[in-house]
Specification:
Blueprint (H helix, E strand, L loop, with lengths): L2 H10 L4 E6 L3 H9 L6 E7 L3 H10 L4 H6 L1 E3 L2 H6 L5 E4 L4 H13 L3 E4 L2 H18 L3 E3 L4 H14 L3 E9 L13 H5 L3 H6 L4 H8 L2 H14 L18 H4 L14 E6 L16 E6 L3 H9 L10 E6 L9 H10 L11 E7 L8 E3 L6 E7 H7 L8 E4 L22 H13 L2
Parallel strand pairs: 1-2, 1-4, 2-3, 4-5, 5-6, 7-8
Antiparallel strand pairs: 7-9, 9-10, 11-13, 12-14
Length: 435
């Protein structure tokens, strides 16, 4: 992509790429740690609910007092977006409701937007991406996060002439994790609450990784960006190591566990009895491809590719992702090349709030990673047919009906403020992209 050469030219002419960051939490801090060693890139402003905390985060990751003094720290993200002087905005709050507002405001002000906020992207990203294209700005997934890295593998495979059989990521999964709460999350990670707090790890956010919600959101984002589609009744999380991807992630008709070709799926680093999977892909991403002919299949064998027994299915994977440490790639791709590192272009998959336990009318839902619901992946048309409540809108809403454990929560089951901007954007997106 020649990003570094372009960036070096900007540095030499004292014309840095100017970035505004919204949200200086863990992801934001990882990005900020790379800024001092990236000539030609400047964080001009940081918006956080607690600007003092954001300044402390900069100190923690190695910023000098001089760098901190050159940066504007504010608590009003919208004002930051309207103030000018930025090229690219990074939305890293993790809050889907405010994330939609921030993204739309960035687009209205002619700013490229990198959406770390996959929760907002799945809620109404197709609409935002369309608005960005019309405005002539880039709406992008965040490189370093698994959706963008998976999209890159899918792009590689298709550009090389391969059919994509499956794509996705790895995670630590057991069926019991769907019921995990912020009170139980750290025991599953092998940490104490004190260790997690010292590392700045938020229990509800990390529980959304464990209980399956984040996996569903990330697979929905990949589907909505690539044209791949979900299994009909949610992710299966089959156990599979790096050597077994092509064997496990092939269609059932060929001896695998996929519902269909062209599917998103997450593989587990644990067998169902809790034993670790050999050479697991817990931190990585993958794509399974099919040889288009006998010659290509022979090449798989000749060059040491892992294949299934037929030799026709093989896999490429990236065993690790560096999250915010890699975010520069998205920022520079948008600012210097005018290209996203993955971008939503349709509404093919959705994530529906699903009861973790028997819920009673009058209870207040607490969203992703909380005590009440987890997010289940569905094809978009199934979600619409169910009238499923998007997980991104399942925070601080009151139930009007009892919901049995593991059943979907529907729009009609909750009290929703239909005038809220996130709700109206979601409704607009559904109407615009309903297939």
């Amino acid at each position: 992509m020649y990003l570094y050469q372009e960036l070096a030219a900007r540095a030499e002419t004292d014309n840095p790429v100017r970035v505004g960051l919204i949200g200086a939490g863990k992801f934001g801090s990882m990005f900020l740690s790379q800024v001092p060693t990236t000539p030609g890139l400047e964080v001009a402003a940081i918006a956080d609910l607690d600007p003092g905390r954001a300044q402390d985060a900069c100190r923690t990751v190695g910023w000098s007092e001089e760098m901190i003094g050159r940066t504007a720290f504010v608590d009003d993200a919208v004002a930051m977006l309207r103030a000018g002087g930025l090229d690219v905005v990074v939305e890293a709050t993790g809050n889907p409701v405010v994330g939609l507002t921030h993204a739309r405001e960035a687009i209205r002000n002619g700013l490229h937007i990198v959406m770390v906020n996959v929760e907002a992207d799945v809620l109404a990203g197709a609409l935002l991406a369309e608005e960005a294209r019309r405005a002539g700005v880039v709406y992008s997934m965040a490189y370093g996060d698994q959706p963008a890295l998976t999209c890159e593998l899918v792009e590689w495979a298709r550009s090389c002439g391969f059919d994509v059989v499956a794509a996705g990521k790895g995670t630590k999964y057991l069926p019991a994790y769907h019921a995990s709460t912020p009170d139980t999350v750290w025991q599953h990670y092998g940490l104490t609450a004190e260790q997690a707090a010292a590392a700045g790890m938020n229990s509800q956010m990390f529980n959304s990784f464990l209980d399956g919600t984040k996996s569903a959101l990330e697979m929905a984002a990949i589907a909505n960006a690539t044209g791949l589609t979900p299994p009909p009744d949610g992710l299966e999380f089959p156990p599979a190591g790096m050597d077994d991807l092509a064997h496990v992630l092939r269609p059932m008709a060929d001896g695998g566990q996929l519902h269909h070709k062209g599917q998103v799926e997450v593989v587990s680093s644990l067998e169902r009895d809790g034993r670790p999977v050999f050479k697991d892909l817990r931190w990585g991403v993958y794509v399974v491809i099919e040889a288009p002919n006998d010659y290509a299949a022979a090449c798989f064998r000749q060059y040491g590719m892992n294949t299934d027994a037929s030799g026709r299915y093989s896999a490429m994977y990236k065993p690790f992702h560096l999250i915010g440490l890699e975010l520069n790639i998205s920022i520079l791709s948008a600012a210097l090349l005018g290209k996203p590192t993955g971008a939503t272009d349709g509404f093919r998959a959705d994530v529906v709030a699903t009861a973790k336990r028997d819920l009673k009318a009058g209870e207040v839902l607490d969203g992703e990673g909380g005590f009440t619901v987890w997010g289940k992946l569905y094809p978009a048309d199934t979600s619409l047919r169910l009238g499923g409540l998007p997980i991104g809108l399942a925070h601080n809403v009151t139930l009007k009906a009892d919901i049995a454990a593991n059943q979907p929560v529907r729009w009609q089951d909750v009290e929703v403020d239909e005038t809220m901007a996130a709700v109206t954007m979601r409704r607009e997106m559904e109407g615009r992209f309903r297939q």
